[in-house]
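Budget justification aside, the reviewers requested a transparent look at the raw inputs and outputs of the sequence design task funded under Objective 1. We therefore reproduce one unedited record. The lines immediately below are the structure tokens for a 237-residue chain.
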């Protein structure tokens, strides 16, 4: 009887173990960093990387599945293999996206970039772009957390942007940064939805926003080493 009890107990434990393993097999492998999926389906995400609607439904679904589960290395491999979005990540490089976030006076941001158009080192460079990282309580994100597509020393300028008032009529989109380009990512980004300058037909530059009194730009360094004389230059109203 004693041996029979042991045998029954062994069978019960084995069955429980198998049941647990079966349950685990049903669990979807999701990156815990992903807490919010802004894009509700594959077609919504595809708008960010397939403007001509030329990507197959199967490939869109595969990309969306990897995106919403936070499988970044697999997603990048898929994009490379299928020549999607010029090698850039989908979703403007972000996840856990929050849209239409207003800018507030006192906020600070920073950014790496070159000058807009040709620049020979004479005068103040024209700076443009949409993507920044927030500076929070003095903390700046590391270069690798930004997941940019070039080495740091390829950028002529690193600058800070101070918000001077609350009257800007456009908003921003905030997100965590997708690891990409062999960079760590997982920093924070703020995409400014800057309007077009009616005088040029192009998006307003940081210089233009400063001229209009919305921001102040301070060049903090020249990572490329080309323009050390411009460190400390302030572009303001």
């Amino acid at each position: 009887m004693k041996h029979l009890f042991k045998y029954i107990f062994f069978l019960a434990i084995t069955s429980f173990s198998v049941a647990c393993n079966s349950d685990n097999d049903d669990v979807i492998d999701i990156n815990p960093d992903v807490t919010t999926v802004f894009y509700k389906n594959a077609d919504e995400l595809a708008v960010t990387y397939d403007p001509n609607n030329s990507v197959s439904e199967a490939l869109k679904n595969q990309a969306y599945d990897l995106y919403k589960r936070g499988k970044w290395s697999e997603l990048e491999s898929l994009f490379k293999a299928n020549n999607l979005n010029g090698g850039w990540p989908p979703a403007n490089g972000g996840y856990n996206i929050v849209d239409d976030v207003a800018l507030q006076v006192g906020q600070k941001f920073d950014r790496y970039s070159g000058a807009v158009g040709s620049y020979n080192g004479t005068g103040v460079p024209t700076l443009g772009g949409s993507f920044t990282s927030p500076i929070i309580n003095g903390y700046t994100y590391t270069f690798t957390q930004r997941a940019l597509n070039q080495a740091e020393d390829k950028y002529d300028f690193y600058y800070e942007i101070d918000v001077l008032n609350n009257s800007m009529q456009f908003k921003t989109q905030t997100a965590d940064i997708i690891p990409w380009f062999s960079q760590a990512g997982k920093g924070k980004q703020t995409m400014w939805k800057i309007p077009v300058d009616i005088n040029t037909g192009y998006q307003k530059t940081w210089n233009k926003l400063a001229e209009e009194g919305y921001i102040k730009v301070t060049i903090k360094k020249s990572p490329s080493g080309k323009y050390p004389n411009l460190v400390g230059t302030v572009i303001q109203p």
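Residues 49 and 85 are 5 Å apart (CA to CA). The first strand starts at residue 94 and ends at 101. Computational costs for records of this kind are itemized in the attached budget.
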